[in-house]
Amino acid sequence: MTLPPGQRAVDGFPRFGTHLHRPAPPVPADPVIELRGALAEAVTLSVTDIAEMPRQEVRADFHCVAGWSATDLLWEGVPFKTLYRTRVEPLLRADAPVSHVYFEGLDGYRSVVLLEDALADDVLIADRLDGQPLDSDHGAPVRLVSPGQYGYVNIKHLCRIEFHTSEPPVTDRWSPLAGHGRARVWKEERHRYLPGRVVRPVYRTLIGPIRALSARGSGPTPR
Ligand SMILES: Nc1nc2c(c(=O)[nH]1)N[C@H]1C(S)=C(S)[C@@H](COP(=O)(O)O)O[C@H]1N2
Ligand SMILES: [Mo]
């Protein structure tokens, strides 16, 4: 099994992230995803309606920028590309070409990716993992899954997607840990300004403390 540079396999799939000090947000009774930004009109889609769109399975490893990888996960959901082509493109203004997509979760966690990266064939709005409905550890009711990009762009508890014509301001842009804008795992794009292999050892030391913050994480602590 080959992993991207600087990654180590872990047993199982830990709950992880920067919002671990709080329990996962409760799933609303009728969850929706709001589509906003450079659209002729705002759209609110129910998660149930999205689940009825043409579906796809993606078998992939999952890579956290801190250096652990969960291997051989089976995701199910609707390709982001399908959502974009059918629900977003018809509403785009000709004078406003979309370049960036912003994703936000119910816990306030957010990420920005290039439209080009979001349209990759293996990017899903996933609602199932390994044959089960997504649980709250891993992003219920739905999460973004982009296996070619580090975990931090794989937004859990997805509730809002915005379409932008330039890079929207990201809150952590000037933080010492500011993530790379593309986050491609095979190119080791870990950090916004520093080479991936330079920050590797620093990021690795964060795994333990981050896990320790977990209010109700599950699974083993990655090494
Ligand atoms: N809503 C939300 N999404 C999130 C995070 C988070 O804290 N909140 N953490 C990110 C990070 S850094 C990683 S590595 C993965 C972890 O996914 P997991 O908890 O399913 O392992 O979720 C990403 N998506
Ligand atoms: Mo991560």
UniProtKB/TrEMBL annotation:
Q: Which PANTHER family match?
A: PROTEIN-METHIONINE-SULFOXIDE REDUCTASE
Which residues belong to any copy of the Oxidoreductase molybdopterin-binding domain?
Answer: 32-168
What name appears for this protein in its UniProt entry?
Answer: Molybdopterin-dependent oxidoreductase
**UniProt cross-references to Pfam families, sorted A to Z:** Oxidored_molyb
Gene source species: Streptomyces kurssanovii
